[in-house]
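How a chain folds remains the central question behind the approach discussed here. No coordinates are needed to read the tokens, only the vocabulary itself. For completeness, the protein is quoted in full, as a sequence line and a line of structure tokens:
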Amino acid sequence: MSPIRCLAMVLVVLGLAGCGKGDDVSDLDAYMNEVRLRPPGKIEPTPIFRSYPTFTYSAANLRSPFSRQVRVDLAGQKHGARNVKPDPARVKQYLEGFNIEQFEMVGTISNATGSFALLRGAGGVHRLKVGDYLGRNDGRIVAISGSQVDVVEIVPDGQGAWLERPRTIPLKEHS
């Protein structure tokens, strides 16, 4: 062994030897005897917790405070037509279970059967053609161009009739 290593081991052994006080634990025994002679204390009962009334958030179906507010012009408001209404017998397509606001156009593709719009939303990118439906308001795709998808939704006018509302989903660049 090297002399430095021997010196280090001697110092460690001497350091450990100085750490022990021996078997003198009389101060600990005296304290434990004092604690044992004390009269038993009274244990306080656990605190009583009051239950608070539950809060139910009831504004989930209202307009988001972060979206633009819609101004209602009653004089210029369009009135629905009796011949415009959704078809209750039509089988709903998968993308009609999602809000139309969550879709964004990311491109188009064309082949021998026609042109298709690529819309991202509802957990993926979907290929849609003219006549397909999306959104919760019976939105039907009426036109597809390189820069946008035109959709017509059927919405209630609030007076028992239905309105056709045009919407545009613009191409999102750099997607």
Notes: The first strand starts at residue 104 and ends at 111. The first helix runs from residue 3 to 19. The beta strands are 104-111, 114-121, 124-128, 133-134, 139-144, 148-156, 162-170. The two ends are 69 Å apart (CA to CA).
